[in-house]
Structure formats: C-alpha cells, structure tokens
Amino acid sequence: MPSPATEEKRLKELESKLKQGKRKAQLLLRESNFKNITLEDILQHWNGSALKRNTDFFKSVEAVYQLEEKKRVKQKELDRTRSENIPDGLECGVCLDWLADSRLLVCGHSFCRNCLYRLYDAAENNIICPMCRIATIGQVDQLNRNYSVEAAIQSCRK
Ligand SMILES: [Zn+2]
Ligand SMILES: [Zn+2]
C-alpha cells in the first residue's frame, strides 16, 4: 500500500488538475447558451448523458466530473489510510478517528466527548461502554478528561 505522503501528493495533483479543468469549463460556459447557471449547478445534475451533444463545453464538464469522482475516491482512501495509522488506545472505538476531547469511563475505556453524547441513555442516566458493555453512571460532562491520551495524541500528531 502506498504511503500516506504519496497518496497526499496524488490528491494534490488531482486537485490542481481539477482546478484547471474547472477554469476551462467555466470559460466555455460563459461562451455557451447557459450563462445563467453555474458550473456547480451543472455538475450537481450531471450524468454524462449530455455528452451526446459532443461540444467542447460538455466534454470539459465531463472531464471535471470524472476528476471530482476520482478525487472523492482518493480522499476516502486517504482517510482510511490515516485511520489505520492511529496507534492503539488513541483511536475512538465509536467514530474510528483520533479521540477528540476524550472522556474516561469507569471501565477504563475512553471515547470522544461528542461520541459519548450519542451513547448517553437519558432514561437510565448512564453510558454503556460499546467495547465492554460496562455501565458508567452519570452524564458525559461529569466524566473526567483523559489527559494522558490527550498528551499522547498531541505528541503523535506533531
Ligand atoms: Zn469518537
Ligand atoms: Zn469499556
């Protein structure tokens, strides 16, 4: 698997290609009969069928559309590579991203504060840990912050 740095470079290349493509499409758009709609509008409803009208403008829109698709896929791949590189214990088991403003449950597991809000059961006034099913009584904001996790994340992400 290519390294995140290589992937990031490829994404940047795609982005600059996309920018050029958009500039070209925008120029052609201004010369076309569709002066009142934006390129973004066209892209949103684009399905390639208009390609039959084989004009430079439609070709340029198709090119931009293809590039955006590619970029979306690449971005997703990159996000996945990044999350695979989160060290054990610093990843939130709910959102699978870096722990953000982590709070410690009585069982010893930590999750993002925002993720815990979603786990909080107001009727029971507790949070069931999704990793070990042990209940922590009380609300999210009563939980202690996990300072050691926060420090470890800071030094990892420098
Ligand atoms: Zn989370
Ligand atoms: Zn737990």
Short overview:
InterPro entries: RNF168/RNF169_E3_ubiq-ligase, Znf-RING_euk, Znf_RING, Znf_RING/FYVE/PHD, Znf_RING_CS. The chain has five helices and five strands; from the N terminus they run H-H-H-E-E-H-E-E-E-H. With 158 residues, it is mostly helical.
Give structural notes.
- The chain has 5 helices and 5 strands; from the N terminus they run αααββαβββα.
- By secondary structure, the protein is mainly alpha-helical.
- It has 2 domains: 81 residues; 55 residues, 2-Layer Sandwich (Herpes Virus-1).
- It has a 3-stranded antiparallel β-sheet with strand order 3-4-5. It has a two-stranded antiparallel ribbon with strand order 1-2.
- A hairpin with a 4-residue loop joins strand 3 and strand 4.
- The longest helix is centred in the middle third of the chain and has 29 residues.
- It starts with a helix and ends with a helix.
- The relative contact order is 0.10.
- One zinc ion (ZN) binds next to loops.
- It catalyses: S-ubiquitinyl-[E2 ubiquitin-conjugating enzyme]-L-cysteine + [acceptor protein]-L-lysine = [E2 ubiquitin-conjugating enzyme]-L-cysteine + N(6)-ubiquitinyl-[acceptor protein]-L-lysine.
- One of its GO terms (biological process) is double-strand break repair.
- InterPro entries: RNF168/RNF169_E3_ubiq-ligase, Znf-RING_euk, Znf_RING, Znf_RING/FYVE/PHD, Znf_RING_CS.
